[in-house]
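2024-03-11 09:14:02 INFO worker-7 job=invfold-0412 stage=load source=structure_tokens
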């Protein structure tokens, strides 16, 4: 059987296991995968069951928790086929010297920018270590990624806010078109 190893931060291992193993069990039951956790090393091995899509979703759920998401949010990836995880590795885009400043721009004063991204585009955002991760439906996650990239590139918060509002309207219009067709 196919398997993958994921190295997770030590402080997130217990979150992946969950109280009395509930999170690990939920991922295994919903995906048909087996999960082996080496708590000392932080290495998580996911072994594929019958379902290839379940295998990919198990990998995304584990990565989401490893990137700072609450398990309840991360497990939404397992609920439907339209919920995805997108991760941006800031270290591949900016220098270590700029990391705190850029993370601060994405979070915003008192977390306002992050909250605005989440509320406007109906996504969940986690900024953990050098990663910005986004969970939501594909179209909304794509728009949120663009907004984060604009912030990384130095766009003003007001410019990003206008961009997100425009994207939200476009997404809503497309979903209305979909409903009138069906």
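2024-03-11 09:14:09 INFO worker-7 stage=emit residues=182
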């Amino acid at each position: 059987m196919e398997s993958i190893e994921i190295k997770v931060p030590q402080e997130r291992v217990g979150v992946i296991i969950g109280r009395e193993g509930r999170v690990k069990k939920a991922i295994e039951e919903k995906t048909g995968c087996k999960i082996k956790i080496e708590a000392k090393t932080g290495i998580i091995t996911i072994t594929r069951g019958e379902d290839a899509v379940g295998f990919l979703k198990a990998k995304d759920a584990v990565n989401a928790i490893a990137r700072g998401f609450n398990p309840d949010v991360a497990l939404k990836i397992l609920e439907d086929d339209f919920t995805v995880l997108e991760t941006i590795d800031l270290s591949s885009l900016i220098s270590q010297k700029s990391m705190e400043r850029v993370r601060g721009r994405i979070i915003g004063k008192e977390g306002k920018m992050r909250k605005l991204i989440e509320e406007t585009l109906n996504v969940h955002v986690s900024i953990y270590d050098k990663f910005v991760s986004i969970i939501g439906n594909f179209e909304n996650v794509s728009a949120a990624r663009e907004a984060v990239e604009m912030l990384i590139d130095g766009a003003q918060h007001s410019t990003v806010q206008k961009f997100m509002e425009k994207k939200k309207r476009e997404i809503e219009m497309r979903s209305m078109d979909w409903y009138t067709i069906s």
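2024-03-11 09:14:09 INFO worker-7 stage=report msg="The first helix runs from residue 10 to 17."
2024-03-11 09:14:10 INFO worker-7 job finished
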